[in-house]
């Protein structure tokens, strides 16, 4: 089974933003993706006509 779940990392714990409905003790594999501030102060400039 494969699903995309959004989560928040707070105080050392990754907290899902929705109910996972998984059996207790099940192991999962995580792939962490994020922008980590890469877009801070980022601007898109478009040519003016």
TrEMBL record:
**Pfam families attached to this UniProt entry:** AF2212-like (PF01954)
Keyword terms of this UniProt record = Toxin-antitoxin system
Q: Which InterPro entries match?
A: AF2212-like (IPR008203), AF2212-like_dom_sf (IPR024069)
Superkingdom: Archaea
- Keyword Plastid (UniProt): no
Is Cytoplasm tagged as a keyword?
no
Annotated function = Antitoxin component of a type II toxin-antitoxin (TA) system.
Return the similarity comment.
Belongs to the UPF0165 family.
Name of the protein in question:
Antitoxin
